């Protein structure tokens, strides 16, 4: 039994592309999140076939079994969580990557997979206005991780390595390590602390500056000094640019200043908001990143690139390999030994890695930086309009300052009515919203950023919000 021959692949490939095109074209008419009973998809799955089946049968199964039970993340009415925009440019780039089918774990296992990634990350560092120290020529470098969560984990491992003078590789952790976050920091930091074996006691929650949701750098400085005096070892602090709940921005510069005397690794988590640095008017968000040790932003949230593509830059290109490199004989090769190449396996937990750079390249190539800026700006403008409508509407409350394209709102009538409103909008199928809690109150988040979202969809959402509240407009 052989694989598809290239001619069959061509024919079936067109059919698959047609299917995807029809899916995207028809998305607006689907409920964003269809109701699904637990177990119903498994119940409908056919038994594994003994004999080969034709592709159209599989596409038919997708229509019957899969599409009715997916949440349509590319739907123009998707306003939940943060967007995970998978532009069709990036889908084509992903196809090219799959077609090449290479492993980029070492430079020598596919030199282009490594060098295209290096070059793109250098280019994007420039486009984001990052300090040249984060480029390869500047002694640092960038990589594409699968997720911001993985990026945080490897940053923590590099921090443990540096903070222990390398002893950590031999002795492991000793229970004195401490990691500094806020109550708004993404849970991936707590997970990284757990995975690294530090235990939850290592996690120190720095309070916010009064009246804000952003880390107090003064409180951080006090906690660091107190912990050092108590014989503990501060390892890493993670300021967030654009928290997941409300888009709050920690003061990266002041955090870095507080961290510096103790040699603490500063990892900036800008998973969602960081890409806005492409627009000069938003570059102030990245103020102070030039003093950080690592910086992460997801191309797979707002930057049009299908999951997974999380961009991670470090100031010291040797930091991650120092913490992570282990070289068995079968991975030894002369390019590595020459020291002239980067082996990205040493920048991540797994050995193997996909040629992720191709889908990112397809995005930057297809939209141009100009197109990407226009995409970001359109969503920020729509969010600003929605914000003014919320402010002007009696009974509605802006629950946090708007952050870029994220608007947080609630009803003055209280938590119950706000939750009922969210549930009503979601049940209508025209939009998907998610929530957070701010100052103990239930808050609706509107994250504008789906590739297909236009003014009409935000208008429709506002109508649904206004007319859907329990006491009516
Ligand atoms: C979404 C998000 C993450 C996690 O992103 P993944 O790439 O899915 O791991 C981390 N931090 C922040 C601030 C986020 O918004």
UniProtKB/TrEMBL annotation:
This is Aromatic-L-amino-acid decarboxylase. One of its GO terms (molecular function) is pyridoxal phosphate binding. GO terms for biological process: amino acid metabolic process; carboxylic acid metabolic process. One of its GO terms (cellular component) is cytoplasm. Its cofactor is pyridoxal 5'-phosphate. Belongs to the group II decarboxylase family. PROSITE patterns: DDC_GAD_HDC_YDC (PS00392). It holds the Pfam family Pyridoxal_deC. The modification N6-(pyridoxal phosphate)lysine is found at residue 301. Keywords: Decarboxylase, Lyase, Pyridoxal phosphate. Gene3D superfamilies: Aspartate Aminotransferase, domain 1, dopa decarboxylase, N-terminal domain, Type I PLP-dependent aspartate aminotransferase-like (Major domain).
């Amino acid at each position: 039994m052989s694989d598809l021959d290239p001619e069959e692949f061509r024919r079936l490939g067109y059919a698959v592309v047609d299917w995807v095109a029809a899916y995207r074209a028809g998305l607006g008419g689907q409920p964003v999140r269809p109701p699904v009973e637990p177990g119903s998809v498994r119940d409908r799955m056919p038994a594994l076939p003994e004999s080969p089946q034709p592709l159209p049968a599989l596409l038919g199964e997708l229509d019957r079994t899969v599409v009715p039970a997916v949440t349509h993340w590319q739907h123009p009415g998707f306003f939940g969580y943060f967007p995970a925009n998978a532009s069709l440019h990036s889908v084509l780039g992903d196809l090219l990557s799959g077609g090449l089918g290479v492993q980029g774990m070492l430079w020598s296992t596919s030199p282009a997979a490594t060098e295209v990634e290096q070059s793109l990350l250098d280019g994007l560092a420039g486009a984001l206005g990052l300090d040249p120290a984060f480029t390869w020529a500047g002694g640092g470098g960038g990589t594409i991780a699968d997720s911001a969560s993985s990026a945080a984990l490897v940053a923590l491992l590099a921090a443990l390595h540096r903070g222990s003078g390398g002893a950590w590789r031999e002795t492991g952790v000793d229970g004195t390590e401490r990691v500094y976050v806020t109550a708004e920091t993404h849970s991936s930091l707590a997970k990284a602390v757990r995975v690294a074996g530090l235990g939850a006691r290592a996690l120190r929650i720095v309070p916010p500056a009064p009246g804000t949701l952003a880390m107090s750098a003064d409180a951080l400085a006090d906690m660091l000094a107190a912990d050092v005096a108590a014989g503990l070892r501060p390892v890493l602090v993670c300021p967030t640019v654009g928290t997941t709940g409300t888009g709050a921005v920690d003061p990266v510069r002041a955090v870095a200043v507080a961290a510096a005397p103790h040699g603490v690794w500063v990892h900036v988590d800008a998973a969602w908001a960081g890409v806005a640095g492409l627009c000069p008017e938003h570059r102030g968000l990245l103020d102070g990143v030039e003093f950080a040790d690592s910086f992460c932003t997801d191309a797979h949230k707002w930057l049009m690139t299908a999951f997974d593509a999380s961009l991670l830059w470090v100031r010291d290109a040797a930091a991650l390999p120092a913490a992570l490199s282990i070289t068995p004989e079968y991975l030894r090769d002369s390019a590595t030994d020459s020291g002239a190449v980067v082996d990205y396996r040493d920048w991540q937990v797994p050995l193997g890695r996909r040629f992720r750079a191709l889908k990112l390249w397809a995005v930057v190539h297809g939209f141009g930086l100009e197109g990407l800026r226009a995409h970001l700006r359109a969503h920020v403008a729509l969010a600003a309009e929605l914000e003014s409508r919320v402010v002007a509407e009696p009974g509605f409350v802006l629950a946090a300052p708007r952050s870029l394209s994220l608007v947080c709102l609630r009803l003055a009538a209280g938590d119950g009515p706000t939750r009922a409103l969210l549930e009503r909008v979601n049940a209508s199928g025209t939009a998907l919203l998610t929530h957070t809690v701010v100052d103990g109150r239930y808050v609706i988040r509107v994250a504008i950023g789906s590739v297909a979202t236009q003014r009409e969809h935000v208008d429709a959402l506002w109508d649904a919000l206004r007319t859907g509240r329990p006491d009516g407009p």
